[in-house]
Amino acid sequence: MDKKIIFSGMQPTSLPHLGNYLGAIKNWVKEQENYNCLFCVVDMHSLTVRQEPAVLRKNSRDLVLLYIACGLDPVKNIIYYQSHVPAHAELAWILNCYTYMGELNRMTQFKDKSQKFENNINVGLFEYPVLMAADILLFQTDLVPVGEDQRQHLELSRDIAIRFNNIYGDVFKVPEPYISQVGSKIMGLADPTKKMSKSDTDNENNTIFLLDDPKRIASKIKRAVTDSDNEIRYTAEKPGIKNLIDIYMTITGKSVAEAEKEFSGMGYGTFKEIIAEAVVEEVSKIQEKYLELSKNKDYIDNIIKDNTEKANYLASKTLNKVKKKIGFAAK
Ligand code: AQP
Questions:
Q1: How far apart are CA 176 and CA 283, in angstroms?
Q2: How far is the CA of 150 from the centre of ligand 1 (A)?
Q3: Is the CB of 56 within 6 Å of ligand 1?
Q4: pLDDT tens sequence across 154-179
Q5: Are the beta carbons of 187 and 194 closer than 8 angstroms?
Q6: Which one, 39, 104, 162, 279, has the greatest CB density within 10 A?
Q7: What is the dihedral of CA 95, 98, 100, 104, to 10 degrees?
Q8: Is 113 a catalytic residue?
Q9: Which of 113, 220, 242, 272 is catalytic?
Q10: Which residue's CA lies nearest to atom 22 of ligand 1?
């Protein structure tokens, strides 16, 4: 029997951080044997915030390398750039006409980013969730592994699919979210009340990037905001400690009880050293693989070429069906 389909993606707005890795990529790696998977570099999404062209191009390429370095098999999975598959944009336009302003107005990411980038509240930022719906529905996706912050967008994708199917019959598979219990919302180290984010440039110690030097990672964790009572407990009342334990559990696979037992009676200094060791060990393996891959230009170019062809082929099947259903003239 054919395997079910997973689609997910990441913006090349900068290099991925520990939240992107633990909340999304690590689950992709876990599920790649069980599903037919597409992992996209969603460069079109990243234009919703102003990008430096040369940096965007480099980050996009590096993201492909990092997907593979994190353990995604580029032969079994389809890894590609969103902008190389024009069907994303075409379907997004069509779905715009089946999405209501009121729905997009309710999106918390739009509200947050409008505040953060108040000089550039562009239409793309507003309709980001429609492009995301197009990404997912284009491939008849069953499951979308994302972090908690994308749950609302995914619910909207489902609503759009159901609405469209109600008018035209069974055109789209209605996708399900895949959001893990642990690691789906890694918080900032300097402000553990807000999620760790790529575009958060206010405090450089807030975010651990996958290509950060190990010493820098350890130093960021050492500076992570905790509290003054020196007691290690996994509770929402201690967001800094909880976040560090979440990071630890997602990396090691240990449970809350196991982690609390291990850290019981320990001072914050030693606790942070153990967290840093776990993070550095995990990230160093990725960095080694990334360095190796970055020396092999032809290999990566061929991967991108092959995968783009596969993605274009699959996307055109759904897009052609949609065009026929809505009444566009046949070619
Ligand atoms: N802090 C996080 N914890 C867990 N998962 C996270 N994700 C993002 N932040 C966290 C998940 O990573 C995937 C890719 O995210 P994205 O690149 O599409 O953009 P985003 O969700 O907007 O993430 P960022 O880092 O905050 O990027 P910017 O600052 O550019 O907007 C998604 O599955 C997301 O849920």
A1: 29
A2: 8
A3: no
A4: 999 999 999 999 999 999 999 999 99
A5: yes
A6: 39
A7: -20
A8: yes
A9: 113
A10: 197
23 contacts 185 by C-beta, under 8 angstroms: yes
Cross-strand partners of 175:
none
Whether ligand 1 lies within 6 angstroms of the CB of 146 is answered as yes
Contacts of 144 (CB under 8 A, 6+ apart): 6, 7, 8, 136, 150, 154, 157, 175, 176, 177, 178
SS3 for 247? Answer: helix
| DSSP label of 176 | E
Rounded to the nearest angstrom, the distance between the alpha carbon of 27 and the centre of ligand 1 is 14
CA of 197 to the centre of ligand 1 (A): 6
**Cα separation values, 165 from 132, 244, 322, Å:** 18, 43, 10
Look up residue 199 and give its amino acid. Answer: S
Catalytic residue flag (residue 220): no
Q: Give residue 1's pLDDT.
A: 57
Q: Strand pairing partners for 74? A: none
Angle at the Cα of 185 (from 184 to 190), degrees rounded to 5? 150
Taking 70 as the pLDDT cut, the residues of the chain under it are 1
pLDDT per residue as tens digits for the range 225-277 = 998 888 999 999 999 999 999 999 999 999 999 999 999 999 999 999 999 99
Atom of ligand 1 nearest to the CA of 113: 31
Is residue 198 annotated as a catalytic residue, yes or no?
Answer: yes
- Beta strand residue intervals within 170-278, DSSP E: 176-178
CA distance 261 to 42: 41
Kindly tell me the sign of the dihedral angle through the C-alpha atoms of 30, 35, 41, 42: negative
Q: Is 198 in the pocket of ligand 1 (CB under 6 A)?
A: yes
pLDDT reported for residue 204? 87
